[in-house]
Design a protein that fits this description.
It comes from Streptomyces scabichelini. This is Peptidase M6. The chain has one domain (about 15-120). About 5% of the residues lie in helices and about 35% in strands. It is built from one helix and seven strands. The strands form two sheets. Strands 1-2-3-4 form a four-stranded antiparallel sheet, with no helix packed on it. The protein has a three-stranded antiparallel sheet with strand order 5-6-7, with no helix packed on it. The protein is globular, with a radius of gyration of 14 Å.
Length: about 120
Amino acid sequence: RVPPGAHHGKLRGTKLAVVRTGRDSVIAFEARGRVGNDGAVCSQGVLVYRVRSETVSGSGPIEVLDAHPASAACWEDSVYPPLADAPIGLGESFTVPGEGVRIEVENRTASGAWTVTVSSG
């Protein structure tokens, strides 16, 4: 289970999951919910990042992957609407392009923790 971001250190448990995809690269998964710094997020779910440590800063070492690339959200409130609906929502799945890593968002508890299955291969 992955709970949304810690709010003043009160939440415990896994907050980020990582799958190594290469010597200098990983796919990271973060729970996004309306708590703490994310209190005004438009879409809740599991946000996916591609991290490449060999890429220099300013050239995109961290890339947010959009689970809904054909849509956008929160045109009036979001800094970048094309990624406002990027998280994988409850009951959805997403396969990371070019990596063979698949994420399924299976459940969300009353406390806000997300149950996800990550597979590769």
